[in-house]
Design goal:
Blueprint (H helix, E strand, L loop, with lengths): L1 E7 L5 H14 L4 E7 L24 H6 L2 E9 L2 E2 L1 H7 L3 H6 L6 E8 L6 H14 L3 E2 L8 H4 L9 E4 L10 H22 L2
Parallel strand pairs: 1-2, 1-3, 3-5, 5-6, 5-7
Antiparallel strand pairs: 3-4
Helix pairs in contact: 1-7
Bound molecules: flavin mononucleotide.
Length: 198
């Protein structure tokens, strides 16, 4: 059974919902299972450290999760057209894995959630691809054979799964957004299984 790491940061839960759908897609692939992990928040204010284990939801990621995974789905809310600082902070701690080529040749995809429809989803998704390319990962997007890409009234892009959470960050995932997130997870899982074949 191949573990596919679904790694995300989510302040208000919208990106987490996408992560769960991507995991659903991965879990639907024979031979693949999703491993859900999140990164802790960071702050410019000096304060006591976060507890080692979150009170609810996915555990905090460890670098070993990256080394052990056969693929990676990376998700972050959009912050000013870019990934959120906690995700960048975590990625900046992966120098040893970069030197060792721990992620090289593994498939990866990206996902995001925004407040507004034109708030920079594609820019965020592309920004998240850059460190993964440096790691030598093989990026997986969504093909237009996923017909929801043509008709979605909210999120869902060929660059990765996405969600428009609205100004109060509380809109539920739309059906097309859910289908596209599941399809992305499924595609990632299938490719990971195919790459792992001898
Ligand atoms: C500091 C900050 C910057 C943000 N920048 C953007 C932005 O550039 N475009 C956008 O559409 N939404 C922006 N948002 C809204 C979030 O991307 C949106 O609420 C997202 O769905 C939250 O995801 P989460 O529930 O996983 O935390 C921003 C929110 C904050 C707090």
């Amino acid at each position: 059974m191949l573990d596919i790491l679904v790694l995300f940061y989510s302040r208000h839960g919208a990106t987490r919902k996408l992560a769960e759908r991507i995991a659903q897609g991965i879990d639907g692939v024979a031979g693949a299972q999703a491993r859900l992990r999140c990164v802790p928040p960071v702050t410019t204010v000096v304060q006591p450290l976060e507890p080692d284990i979150p009170a609810t939801g996915a555990p905090y990621v460890e670098l070993a999760d990256l080394e052990e995974c056969a693929g990676l789905a990376l998700g972050s809310p959009t912050r000013f057209g870019n990934m959120a600082a906690p995700m960048k902070h975590f990625l900046d701690s992966t120098g040893a894995q970069w030197f060792a080529g721990a992620l090289a040749g593994k498939p990866a995809c990206v996902f995001t959630s925004t407040g507004s429809l034109h708030g920079g989803q594609e820019a965020t998704l592309i920004s998240m691809m850059l460190p993964l390319l440096h790691h030598g990962m093989l990026l997986v997007g969504l093909p237009y054979s996923e017909t929801d890409l043509m008709t979605t009234p909210a999120g869902g892009t060929p660059y990765g799964a996405s969600h428009v959470a609205g100004p109060d960050a509380n809109r539920p995932l739309q059906e097309a957004e859910q289908r596209l997130a599941v399809a992305l997870g499924r595609r990632l899982g299938l490719i990971a299984v195919q790459l792992a074949r001898p």
